[in-house]
Amino acid sequence: MIIVGVTGGIGSGKSTVAKTFHSMFGIPMYISDDEAKLLMVNSVEIKSELIDLFGEEAYLDGALNKPYISHAIFNNKALLEQMNAIVHPRVAAHFKSWVDKQTSAYILKEAAILFESGADRMCDYIITVTLDKATKIERLLKRDKTSVEKIESIMKQQWSDDERIAKSDYVIVNDTMAHMEQQVKEIHREILKKNK
Ligand SMILES: CC(C)(COP(=O)(O)OP(=O)(O)OC[C@H]1O[C@@H](n2cnc3c(N)ncnc32)[C@H](O)[C@@H]1O)[C@@H](O)C(=O)NCCC(=O)NCCS
Ligand SMILES: Nc1ncnc2c1ncn2[C@@H]1O[C@H](COP(=O)(O)OP(=O)(O)OP(=O)(O)O)[C@@H](O)[C@H]1O
C-alpha cells in the first residue's frame, strides 16, 4: 500500500487538504490526532499510563480533559515527550492495522507532527501544507476558542515549514480553496502516474 503523509503546522489546513483528497477522489484518510484522541479515551492501558503521568485530572467523567493536558504539555517539553512516548507507539500500531484493511491505490496519513513522531518513515510520499503565520492565526481564531498566546506555544513545539519542506516530496500552499484544490488534483495525478 502506498502511504502518503500529509503534514503541516497548526492551522495550515492539513485536515482540509486530506478531506479534499477524500471528497474528490475517495482516498481513505487516517487523521492521526483524531485517532490518537479516541485511543486516549478507549484504551485502558493508555488511560492508566496518562493518569500516572498527569494525575486523575487528565480525565473528566471519562472524557479527556483537553484544556488541562494542553496547558500542561505545551508549556513543558519533557512532559510532552513523555505523553508522546505513551500515545504514539499505540497510534502507529493502530495505523498499521488500519492500513492492512485498505484496498485503494494509496492512502493518506494526516499528522501535525509526522516528522517529530517518526511516522514519516512509514510514508512513501510526503506532502507539506504551508500558509503564512498571520493567516494561520486568523483562521484558528475563527475556528477555535483559543488565543494567539496558545497558538504560539503550540507552534514552538512543532517543526518549522522550512524543516518540513526540506524533507517533503510535495508542497501545497493553502492560501485559497481554489488554489489548494488545483494542487491536490495535480499531486493525485502524479502519485497515480508514478505508481502505475
Ligand atoms: C493535547 C490535546 C489534548 C489538546 O486538545 P485540543 O482539542 O485542545 O487541541 P487540538 O487537538 O486541536 O490540538 C491543537 C493542535 O496541537 C497540535 N498537537 C496536538 N498534539 C500534539 C503533540 N503531541 N505534539 C505537538 N503538537 C501537537 C496539533 O497541531 C493540533 O491540531 C490533544 O491535541 C491531544 O490529545 N494530543 C495528543 C495526541 C497527539 O499526539 N496528536 C498528534 C498527532 S498523532
Ligand atoms: N483554503 C482555505 N481557505 C479558507 N479557510 C480554510 C482553507 N483551508 C482551511 N481553512 C480553514 O482553516 C481552519 C484550519 O484548517 P484545518 O482545520 O484543516 O487545519 P489543520 O492544519 O488541520 O489544523 P490543526 O493543526 O489545528 O489540526 C479551518 O477552520 C478550515 O476550515
Description:
With 196 residues, this protein is of the alpha/beta class. The protein has a single domain (2-194), classed as Rossmann fold (3-Layer(aba) Sandwich), CATH 3.40.50. It is 56% helix and 14% strand. The chain has nine helices and seven strands, in the order βαβααββααββαααβα. The chain has helices spanning 14-25, 32-42, 44-54, 66-73, 77-100, 133-143, 148-156, 161-166, 177-194, and strands at residues 2-7, 29-31, 59-60, 63-64, 106-110, 125-130, 170-173. The strands form two sheets. The chain has a five-stranded parallel beta sheet with strand order 2-5-1-6-7, sandwiched between helices. Helix 2 (32-42) packs across helix 3 (44-54) and helix 2 packs across helix 5. The longest helix has 24 residues, at 77-100. 27% of the residues are buried. The structure holds dephospho coenzyme A and adenosine-5'-triphosphate.
Principal-axes shape call: globular
CATH architecture: 3-Layer(aba) Sandwich
Distance between the termini: 13 Å
The CATH class label is Alpha Beta
- How many helical stretches? 9
H/E series: EHEHHEEHHEEHHHEH
Q: Could you say what the CATH topology is called?
A: Rossmann fold
Instruction: Compute the CA-based radius of gyration.
Output: 17 Å
- Looking at the chains present, what oligomeric state does this protein adopt? single chain
Helix vs. strand class: alpha/beta
EC number: 2.7.1.24
Family: Belongs to the CoaE family.
Main location: cytoplasm
InterPro entries: Depp_CoAkinase (IPR001977), P-loop_NTPase (IPR027417)
SSE layout and pairing:
Blueprint: E1 2-7, H1 14-25, E2 29-31, H2 32-42, H3 44-54, E3 59-60, E4 63-64, H4 66-73, H5 77-100, E5 106-110, E6 125-130, H6 133-143, H7 148-156, H8 161-166, E7 170-173, H9 177-194
Parallel strand pairs: 1-5, 1-6, 2-5, 6-7
Antiparallel strand pairs: 3-4
This protein binds dephospho coenzyme A (COD) and adenosine-5'-triphosphate.
The site of adenosine-5'-triphosphate has 16 residues, from helix 1, helix 6 and helix 9.
EC number: 2.7.1.24
Function: Catalyzes the phosphorylation of the 3'-hydroxyl group of dephosphocoenzyme A to form coenzyme A.
GO molecular function: ATP binding; dephospho-CoA kinase activity
